[in-house]
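subagent[fold] <- orchestrator: predict structure for attached chain, return tokens only, no commentary.
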Amino acid sequence: MAGAGPLGRAERRGAGALEGEVLAALWGAGRALTPAQIQAEIGGLAYNTVHTILKRLYDKGLVLRDADGRRGAYRPAKDAAQLTAESMRAALDRSPDPVAALRRFVTGLTADEERALRDLLADGDGDGGHR
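subagent[fold] -> orchestrator:
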């Protein structure tokens, strides 16, 4: 829900933040949800806003629409890890110096994240030993 900003005005969430909230609701549900169910899960958004966000996510290929009688239910096209990995890859691709960007990223990892990265690199196949 939007918080109060300077002078007590309500702060608006950007489109990216709203898309993230809708995706988080879908990932958390583990099943397809209707716009009304997503609206209830997130709270503070008009039904039309939720529907607009779902249309944008659908147009971007980030959600799939399941026919459910006359109502449509939506589910994520990708899991959170896959979407995050694709975003990281795209950020590296946009960088004029991807190695420097990667170096900066790695130096900001927590000890657990660094250990996981080392394990993944040692494993060599990228699945961390999971099949």
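orchestrator: received. Logging for downstream: The helical segments are 15-29, 35-42, 47-59, 80-94, 98-107, 111-123. Confidence is low (pLDDT under 50) at residues 1-5.
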